[in-house]
Amino acid sequence: MNLLKALDVKSMSKQRIRDIAEGLLDGGEGSGNFGHKGRPGQRGGSGGGGGSKGHATKATKGEHQKAIDRLRSKDYDDGTYSVTSLKPVDFKDGYQVTFCQIGDDYSDEEYAEKVNEFYEYSSDGESYAGKFQSEPEISFHVSSLEDAIRLAKKYNQISIWDWATGDSIDTGGTGRRD
After folding, report:
1. In a 10 Å sphere around its CB, with 0-12 CB exposed, 13-18 middle and 19+ buried, how is residue 155 labelled?
2. Is the pLDDT of residue 35 over 80?
3. I need a surface site. Which of 60, 93, 140, 169 has the fewest CB within 10 A?
4. d(CA 98, CA 135)
């Protein structure tokens, strides 16, 4: 079967297609493609690719939980990764922002609602898995600093990651769900 015919590439984001292609061509664990060293001085940000075409469903929380569990079970540095492949992701600009999530007591429906809110502001309609201060999380790439700060403050986040400067921007939160 032709792989491109099997995949509905017209409805996939460019990042999702790249993640799939890299996964097929680069091999799996042990191939040397999991050696991400993180970003020097990195405090914020999380990892790449894996939204449900910009629309979360009740299954999204479970998909995100699988990525978080994989990050916990292996030695991943602080950084941003594809939800689907856990390969490192890097952006030239924009901001990475999250909300208190997986460990929280959101129902599947509440979680999907929060993710969809972030997809509205997301630059690519994707979600990312990663580590912040050694704790796994799901985050979103947002182009606008104003939108990223607004979301971070709404969800009591400690900081957002600024891809252009390679540093975090404190947003005054505690990182806990209030």
Report:
1. buried
2. no
3. 93
4. 12
Report the domain count for the chain.
1
Instruction: Find the domain containing 65 and state its range.
Output: 39-170
Is residue 49 one of the residues assigned to a domain? yes
Nearest to 84 by CA among 131, 116, 49: 49
Lookup: tokens for 115 = 């993710």
Residue labelled with tokens 């969809």: 116
Q: Which amino acid is at 118?
A: F
What pTM did the predictor assign?
A: 0.67
Domain annotation covers residue 132:
yes
Mean pLDDT of the chain: 76
- Residue 73 resides in a domain: yes
Q: Which residues contact 160 (CB under 8 A, 6 or more apart)?
A: 44, 95, 96, 97, 148, 149, 152, 168, 169, 171
**Cβ density class 163-172: b for 16+ within 10 Å, e for less:** beeeebbebe
DSSP assignment of 9-40: GGGS-HHHHHHHHHHHHH-STTSSTT-----T
Residue 129, domain member (yes or no): yes
